[in-house]
Amino acid sequence: MDVNTCVPFNIRAAVTKKVWSVSVQVVALAPLYRMLPHHLYDPQSFGSLSSPLQTMEYADCGSDSLQVLAPKFDFVPPDHITLFITNQGGSCPSYIYRLLSEIYDPKDYQI
After folding, report:
1. Of 2, 15, 71, 94, which is least surrounded by CB within 10 A?
2. What confidence tier does 3 reach under pLDDT thresholds 50, 70, 90?
3. Longest dimension (CA), the chain
4. Which domains are assigned to the chain?
């Protein structure tokens, strides 16, 4: 398997969509405890922002009026990911729900 791109779990969906459209394999690296056992449907959950200093330094902006948004979460469709590398090893996207069911109790889904 020729893996051309390795991206973290919180990478922007637009990047994975582009590389997926040209048949580049995408590998997501994430521990299972950072994955959610259910989908977030609340727009407020996706609208959370983190400090842009994690993305770029203030001195590197080059402009006083530049506004940098750094979202905490982004949804990447599972069909855009070729392989998930977790603390349990490598898994295909269809098997992630099985791994999460071993970690989370169904009662935890309602929290």
Report:
1. 2
2. very low
3. 49
4. 1-34+67-111 (3.40.50.10470)
Q: 7: closest CA among 20, 87, 39? A: 20
Q: Which residues contact 76 (CB under 8 A, 6 or more apart)?
A: 9, 11, 13, 16, 28
pLDDT in tens, 9-25: 445 667 777 777 787 88
Strands 5-8 and 26-29: parallel
Instruction: Say if residue 81's pLDDT is above 60.
Output: yes
Which of 84 and 60 is assigned the larger pLDDT?
A: 84
CA 9 to CA 102: how far, in whole Å? Answer: 20
